[in-house]
Amino acid sequence: MMSSRELDALIAEKVFGIDVKWEDKIPCDGEPYFTSDNERVEGYYLNELKCYSTDIAAAWGVLEKVCEGTDWSPQVGLKSCMLFGGFVNDWGPKPTKTIIIKETESAPHAICLAALKAIGVDV
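^ that's the sequence the OP posted. Answer follows.
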């Protein structure tokens, strides 16, 4: 099982398209990080990423991004996340695709796992 920060990095890369640097470096005084050859390093370092898998506000941003422009409809519980999509209207709206993540560490963790599954990334 991957750590929370590894999951955060995977979300950043796959959901938001962020280039993640896996080292834990902090740019000095909020300035961009440069190499010893004075070349700017693009992307985000692992400790600069939002805590998508543990912070509900950050996780909600993940959910919004994944559902944006799709027919996914989310339901979030204390330790679960369900996504329903591909609705058909036979005697009321019924989803033709469903993602259910339950009994995880927390709602943010479940949201991240469901989001990755929705975009075709198996964890």
